[in-house]
Amino acid sequence: MNRKWYVLRTIPSKELEAAELMVGKLSHTLWQACRILKKQQLFRTQADYLLSRKDMFPGYLFICTDSPQELAKELKKTRRFLQLTGSPAEELIPIEDEDLKFLEHVCGKDLEHDMRLSTVRVDEQGHVQSARDALKPYIGRITRQRLRHRYVTAEVPLFNRRENVLFGIRLDGDPV
Question: Average pLDDT in the 133-140 region?
Answer without folding.
Answer: 95
